[in-house]
Amino acid sequence: MDMINFEALFKISYGLYLVCSGDKNKGNGFVSNTVFQVTANPPQFAACCNKDNYTAEVIKKHGAFSVSVMDKNASAEMFGTFGYRSGKDFDKMANMDIKYGETGVPIVMNDCVSYMELRVVQTVDVGTHLMFIGELISAEIIDDTKEPLTYLYYREVKKGVAPKNAPTYVDKSKLIAKPAQLELKSYKCLACGYIYDEAVESIRFKDLPDDWICPVCGSEKSDFIEI
Amino acid sequence: MDMINFEALFKISYGLYLVCSGDKNKGNGFVSNTVFQVTANPPQFAACCNKDNYTAEVIKKHGAFSVSVMDKNASAEMFGTFGYRSGKDFDKMANMDIKYGETGVPIVMNDCVSYMELRVVQTVDVGTHLMFIGELISAEIIDDTKEPLTYLYYREVKKGVAPKNAPTYVDKSKLIAKPAQLELKSYKCLACGYIYDEAVESIRFKDLPDDWICPVCGSEKSDFIEI
């Protein structure tokens, strides 16, 4: 039997999106890298959402969602807000530039290149996640001078990692260990969960300058713990 | 009501893959840009396939498929073979470097960066397409020095277009016409169906050099007709 080399999965290309739902009273959303077109006629798109994710509940209730394509230069705060915190007791939309779609769902306009609004036509249970398949009801460019952020750029340049409930989360213990990496350590940001892994960085954590900040949420070096 | 600006859909990021199925006697496959991970535990991936596409039939029969991540420098012949021709009466695997997976499906190794083999666990009817959801049974890097091809690179650098039965095919008449484009023409490659659209190119077709060849299949300029 062949083995699974999880490194091979990193070769799948993704963009990064804000998938949002709800209404004017209460909106919520999360950063997703698995939004994709499933048919051209009519235009339908799918998005996967962890069942434990509050947004899954909100999409089920409202029967619609929006997808905003994140800008390559989206600020760290966007990841802090949408990527690592639950919106159950926190209004993620509070400081955002929001447009409300035809279905009433919030559409994040800041730090984004384009958006789509979709009405759910099918919900597929795929195990840990629900896949919402939506028919496109509107789409517009927000700023054509901006470039879409890709997951590759996020990982390589922004040093971001997938949170635990993402479809593409990889348990590092499953990766093939390289002997030289065995003595290397990992450090976790207590604010957003970002992992600084010495095995993939060129600088030891202790050698980072004191004013170094978390590339995801901007927390200070002292907010990290060894894991 | 908001309108649909189809240009906004071009901001969704995709990779390009060879999705194959069948066995040693008869294998088939096609170029897909909609392969994506749907869960991490277990690792499951989805791929959409047009119902009219011969590969859909083959995947249904074999209950398994392979996904090879195309190399950024994949040759034009790969697109000619897998992107624009039907495998019904033609052996697409004939000149390929093939490995056969645990399920017996062919896995294309040449011009590719990594591969995955998947067993179908769920088939979702999404209208014009079938979405095959497969559980990962093997994955391996083929060549780590190669970079994955993205749809953006294919469109911008290789000047490729989606064929008619792709989930991301866009009927150009739906794009917002720019006045300056109205007098521009399109030319179609009779061999592979590739469209040279003056509205998106910087050179008129007639001004292309005589030794210009189709970027997809390598056919000569004289094999193009005005459409």
What would the keywords be for this entry?
homodimer; 227 residues; mainly beta; Pnp Oxidase, Chain A; Rubrerythrin, domain 2; globular
Explain what the structure shows.
2 copies of one chain form a homodimer. With 227 residues, chain A is mainly β. Chain A folds into 2 domains: 14-152, Pnp Oxidase, Chain A (Roll); 180-227, Rubrerythrin, domain 2 (Single Sheet). Helices cover 10% and strands 33% of the residues of chain A. Chain A has 3 helices and 12 strands, in the order ββββαβαββββαβββ. Chain A has helices at residues 54-62, 76-83, 151-156, and strands at 17-22, 27-32, 35-40, 43-50, 64-70, 98-100, 106-108, 112-125, 129-141, 186-189, 195-197, 224-226. The first copy, chain A, has a 7-stranded antiparallel sheet with strand order 2-1-5-8-9-4-3. A 3-stranded antiparallel sheet of chain A has the order 11-10-12, with no helix packed on it. Chain A has a two-stranded antiparallel sheet with strand order 6-7. Chain A starts with 16 loop residues before the first strand and ends with a strand. The relative contact order of chain A is 0.18. At the A-B interface, β3, β4, β8 and β9 of A face β3, β4, β8 and β9 of B. Chains A, B: InterPro entries: Flavin_Rdtase-like_dom, NADH-dep_flavin_reductase, Rubredoxin-like_dom, Rubredoxin_dom, Rubredoxin_Fe_BS, Split_barrel_FMN-bd.
Quick overview of this protein structure:
The first copy, chain A, has three helices and twelve strands, in the order ββββαβαββββαβββ.
